Amino acid sequence: MSTVAFIGLGNMGLPMAVNLLHKGFHVRAFDLVPEAVAALEAKGAVACRSAIDAATGADVVVSMLPSGKHSRALYLGDSDTTGLLQTVSEDTLLIDCSTIDAATAKEVSLAAEAKGFDFVDAPVSGGTAGAAAGTLTFICGGNVAAVERAKIVLNAMGSTIFHAGGPGCGQTAKICNNMLLSILMAGTSEALSLGIDNGLDPAVLSDIMKASSGANWALDKYNPCPGVMVSVPSSNGYQGGFMVDLMVKDLGLSQETAQKSRSSIPMGALAQALFVSHGRKGNGRRDFSSIFELFSNKQT
Ligand code: NAD
């Protein structure tokens, strides 16, 4: 079985890398946080001192980093680090699963292709639960041959693979999805709070809306009201999951994308304002479903 260098072992990367180990891949792991590397080492990975160390001799590199500047530095290098494109053999398949701006994804992908690498931008949907269960959706951008080659690794971490188009297209599709998710999470929080303020049980109201025309992913899989659903961040003090800061990043990307295409996205702009304001009140590192507290009378 091939060797995968996994770079970025946070809320998403760690469970994704664990699934690779479970499926028989050899994993060489690196993260800036030594505890994250140690956690994967305990599951059978080889702990590495740097991204270059992890990628040396690997057949595939998978990165799961916070934003475009991290992905760019990893592959192209910056003033502090040498990029992987300068250091690893060009038969290494490169897969960036981070959610980043499409322009950076395209720049890195084209630079990689020019050096003879296969590069795929493969942001994911499905959250930390999907990462742990190995049921993520991968939304790929890149040439057909590169995406085909990536499937054996992606199938070990997810259940659905889309090919959205050429380099950067995976990121554009992901940004559209996350803008919609932010709108649905804020709207679901608002509707639940209106019901609670008027005497409804949020669990009963959730069941009613799930079976009615308001049904959506937030209600179905990620209820933002504490106590309605077990094993979701709202029932765990909004810890883990998808940080408000990362949603704010994605909403900024949707605004940048809309400016370039002169698209009108007023709902996205409103969601951005809500999540920015919520994040600035000390909620940046909490799960994004904590936006519920913006509408709720009761502080949880
Ligand atoms: P996270 O902050 O939990 O993890 C990021 C990890 O990258 C951290 O452990 C950090 O130490 C590490 N890191 C940062 N710079 C690094 C570097 N130069 N070298 C090595 N490691 C480095 O974030 P996350 O929630 O795991 O999200 C990762 C990506 O996945 C983001 O782009 C996010 O938008 C996207 N995403 C997250 C979710 C979710 O539900 N959390 C869902 C879909 C997509």
Describe the protein's architecture and organization.
- The protein is an alpha/beta fold and 300 residues long.
- It has 2 domains: 3-166, Rossmann fold (3-Layer(aba) Sandwich); 172-295, N-(1-d-carboxylethyl)-l-norvaline Dehydrogenase, domain 2, CATH 1.10.1040.
- The chain is built from 14 helices and 9 strands.
- It has helices spanning 13-22, 34-41, 51-55, 68-76, 84-87, 102-114, 127-133, 144-154, 169-197, 202-210, 217-221, 244-261, 266-283, 292-295, and strands spanning 3-7, 26-30, 46-47, 60-63, 93-96, 118-121, 124-125, 136-141, 158-165.
- Helix 1 (13-22) packs parallel to helix 7.
- It is globular, with a radius of gyration of 20 Å.
- The N and C termini lie far apart (47 Å).
- The model has no long low-confidence stretch (mean pLDDT 96).
- The structure holds nicotinamide-adenine-dinucleotide.
- The site of nicotinamide-adenine-dinucleotide has 26 residues, from helix 4 and helix 7.
Named CATH topology of the largest domain: Rossmann fold
Q: Which structural class should the secondary elements be placed in? A: alpha/beta
Supply the number of structural domains.
2
**Main sheet makeup:** 6 strands, parallel
The topology string of helices and strands comes to EHEHEHEHHEHEEHEHEHHHHHH
- List the ions, cofactors and other small molecules found in this model: nicotinamide-adenine-dinucleotide
What percentage of amino acids are in beta strands?
5-15%
Tell me the name of the CATH class of the largest domain: Alpha Beta
Fraction of residues in H or I helices: 40-55%
